[in-house]
Structure formats: C-alpha cells, structure tokens
Amino acid sequence: MNKHRLILYVWLCMAALHAAAQTNGSNSPYSRFGLGSLKDQSQGFNRAMGGVAMGFRDGNRINMQNPASYSGIDSLSFIFDVGITLQNANFKSGGSSVNAHNTTLDYINAGFRLSRGFGFSFGFMPFSSIGYNFSESKYLGSHFNSGSTLTYTNSYTGDGGIHQAYVGFGWNPVADLSIGANFGYIWGNYEQNIAQTFYDNGTVTTSSNGLQRQIDADISSYKIDIGVQYPIRIGKNDVLTAGATYSIGHTINSPAHYYSYVTNGDTTKSTIEKAFDLPTAYGAGLAWAHKDQWKVGLDVTHQQWGDARMPQVIDNRFVSTSENYLNRTKVAVGAEWLPERYSNKYLRRVMYRVGASFATPYFRVNGHDGPREYTVTAGFGLPITNQFNNRSVLNISFQWGRFAAPASSLITENYLRLNVGITFNERWFMKWKIQ
C-alpha cells in the first residue's frame, strides 16, 4: 500500500466523522422515546441482505455484528470499510403528510489478522439518533362575552444521539470454533424539550402562563459484545455456520437533568444520578454457503428494553423507570448470489443481494404499543478493478421501510434509503520472494 492510498483512507475517515457531526441522522417523531431511533448496525456487505450477520464469516469482509468472525479475516489483507446513507422519509397522521431528508454516516471500521487464527478490528458506528420537531394544537373554547377563541399549542423538539467506538478481537482456539468480543465506548448527548403556549384569537396570551419542560443528559459508558461461530461442513460444497452473540446490559453512570418553568415564574430543577440502562441483548443465526456462489442467512435478535430504565415525566414527577418500554425482537433474512468470482465478464463478478426484516417496538406511545418496523432490501456488490487492486468492492443497496403503529391515532412513517459503502481490501502483508 503506497502513501497516497494511506492519505486517502485518513481523508475518508476525517470526512465521514465531520459528516457525522453535522447531522443527527433522524427526523422521526418516534426518536423522542428511549435512547432515540436505533441504528441497525449493518454494513455495506449485509445492508442489502436485511442486515443478517450472525453466521457470516469471510476473509474479505469485516462483520462487526459478530466479533467471532474476525478470526476468519484473510492473512494477507488490511480491510478498510466506510458507508453513508441518504434517506427520504414521509410521515403521515390523519390527513397530514410531511417529507424529510437527511444524510448520515453509517460506519467506519478496519480489520486485519494479527496472527494465525487471531483477528483484530476497530471502528466507529452510531448506536441511536434523536432529532424531531413537531407540534400539536388543541381548542379550549370561546369566551361568551368577548367572543375570543382560546387555543394552546404544545411544541416538541429534540436533538442528540449515541455514538460508539470499539476495538474487537476474534480467536479460533480449537478446531472450527471461533469466539470474539467487541470492547466499546459509547457517548452522546440527549435533549428533549416541550413548550406549551396559549393563544387568544391567534395571539399569545399574557394572562395564561406557558409551561416549558426540558430533559438533558451527557451520556458516556462502556459496551461489551461477545460472539461465537461454528461452521459445519454438510457436503463437498456446502457449509452451514451457526452464530450467536450476547451484549452485556448494565446501568449507565450518567445523570439526567429536568427543568420545568412557567412564564414569569420560578424554575424547578431535578436530577437523577443514574438515569439510563443499556439493555441486555442476544441473538442467534444460521448462514448457509454453497461453493463460492450462494450465501443465505437467517438471524433473530432480542433486546430486553422492558428491563431498561429511562428518564420520564409521569404525573408531573421526574423518574427513571422501565415503564412504557418493551422487549424488542428482530428477525432478518437475506441472500447473496455471485455467479462466478473469477469470470472475465464483469456482470458475472457482481454480487446480487436481497433481504427483508421485521422488528417489534421497544416503547409505548400514550398507552399503545409503538410502531412495528418492516423493511425490504436489495443491492449489489460491484468489484473495483484497476492496475493496483482487484479485491475492493463498491456496495450499493436500496432499503424501503415502514413504521406501522397498531393505533390509528399514531404517526405512520415510510422511508426510502440509498446506502453506499466502499470496502477497500489491500494486500498489506504479502511477502514477495525472488527465486
């Protein structure tokens, strides 16, 4: 690898991190619950396959969703991966409809083998995002004598999100068994605001005091994810790999602050020292590989948000509680077809991918279960071939998703995403011999 490509990688990292700092990656009103809208953690190679990852282990890819896969990284390679998403979302409630657009950083990571059967990876990836701005108005009545009309408006705004950086190891200690772990640091800010304003014939009243509330926190903690994989050969050309992961749940030692005040009145402040929990999570999956052509995977993951405490205002009390939160289950399925890896025809070296997923909500809204998420995905892995490299890949995927709530009074969200990722695969560790 020459110095010009090293400079390019550093520049891509800086540009992607700058992009992450410029956007919170969410326009969803549902990001006001819990830690915000959860990221699916998938990468360029599996984003088009519904995010399946538990059983995937390839020498030319980084699969951070199961760190046991790092032990399978090719011994000659240094892999660098970066991806972004462009999203168009539509929100519907009653007869109203609003569109929103945003661009987000999906991930930056790298990986290589340290020694035989021992792989290493490090990187950055958002965990959740908070970003919303909406309001609701209600009619209070009319004054009989003056004929004035009284209304009030509640305005809801929020901003923030959680980021994570990690280093991970994958080890193949015996036979085909691989184990691994990601050791992560999570950090971010959390801010929610509610402003209530009263109007008399469309003019802000001075006789009624508006109420304003704010919750904010600076969050930082650790995150540990453990993985295991075991491939089973079931024929001359077929391998079935079982994979499983476990994420350690724990209390986040970060305080949350609550401010409440009325116009021309005093400010009330409350603080909860340990207001947040990171949920325990676990997953399992299977991946079937046929020759070097077909890969098919199925994953099931479960997050115990029903046991995780979050700061909330309930009956005018600022409390940290798991009330209004639910355990979340996600099922994903996906497939990849590569006609012929070493064909002279370019289209036969393209990887064709499809997938789908379904996830239950992790929160309640006004006593109702939140929206369920349905996604359908498709995309390509396009080989990048030049005089220096024929192992890098441009990953392009399209994702259609829908948040559908069981209660008709809740907002329905539809989104279309274009995901673009580049996997640079360099032969850093090749040794040349002269005979």
Structural summary, described in words:
This protein is about 5% helix and about 60% strand. The protein is built from two helices and 24 strands. The strands form four sheets. The protein has a 14-stranded antiparallel barrel. Strands 10-13 form a two-stranded antiparallel sheet. The chain has a two-stranded antiparallel sheet with strand order 16-17. Strand 8 (about 210-235) and strand 9 form a beta hairpin. The longest helix has 20 residues, at about 5-20. It is elongated and about 80 Å long.
Q: Would you report the number of β strands? A: 24
Helix content: under 10%
Strand order of the largest sheet: 2-3-4-5-6-8-9-14-15-18-19-22-23-24
Radius of gyration, in angstroms, nearest whole number: 25 Å
Which keywords apply here?
single chain; mainly beta; 14-stranded antiparallel beta barrel; two-stranded antiparallel sheet; 24 strands; 60% strand
Give a brief rundown of this model:
The chain is mostly beta strands.
Helix-strand layout with pairing:
Blueprint: H1 3-22, E1 37-38, H2 44-47, E2 78-93, E3 96-115, E4 118-142, E5 149-174, E6 177-200, E7 203-204, E8 211-233, E9 238-247, E10 250-252, E11 256-262, E12 267-272, E13 276-278, E14 281-290, E15 294-303, E16 310-314, E17 317-321, E18 328-337, E19 351-359, E20 364-365, E21 368-369, E22 372-384, E23 392-404, E24 412-426
Antiparallel strand pairs: 1-4, 2-3, 2-24, 3-4, 4-5, 5-6, 6-7, 6-8, 8-9, 8-11, 9-14, 10-13, 11-12, 14-15, 15-18, 16-17, 18-19, 19-22, 20-21, 22-23, 23-24
